[in-house]
C-alpha cells in the first residue's frame, strides 16, 4: 500500500513538471551565400636592404643577453 501511494505521488509530481506551452516551428528560411576570397592588398613598398640589415645587426647585438624580468 505504501509503495503504491509513493508511486502515485511520484507520478503526480513528475507530471506537474511538464511544460504546457507548445513550441512553434520556425518558419525562417536559411539562405546560403558564398564568400569570394579577396587577394590581399600589398601595395606597401618593401623595406630596403639597408634597413633590414640594420635591424638584423641591432638584434645580433643582444644575442646571448639574459632576459631581465620587468614589472612593478
Automatic annotation (TrEMBL):
Biased composition annotated in UniProt, kind: Low complexity: 23-39
Domain of life of the organism encoding this protein: Bacteria
Region of interest (Disordered), residue spans: 23-49
Signal peptide: 1-18
Key words, A-Z: Signal
UniProt keyword annotation of Lipoprotein present: no
Protein name, per record: NlpC/P60 family protein
Originating organism: Xanthomarina gelatinilytica
Lineage: Bacteria, Pseudomonadati, Bacteroidota, Flavobacteriia, Flavobacteriales
Amino acid at each position: 500500500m505504501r509503495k503504491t501511494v509513493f508511486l502515485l505521488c511520484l507520478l503526480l509530481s513528475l507530471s506537474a513538471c511538464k511544460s504546457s506551452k507548445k513550441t512553434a516551428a520556425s518558419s525562417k528560411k536559411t539562405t546560403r551565400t558564398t564568400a569570394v576570397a579577396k587577394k590581399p592588398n600589398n601595395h606597401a613598398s618593401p623595406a630596403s636592404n639597408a634597413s633590414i640589415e640594420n635591424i638584423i645587426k641591432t638584434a645580433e647585438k643582444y644575442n646571448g643577453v639574459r632576459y631581465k624580468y620587468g614589472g612593478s
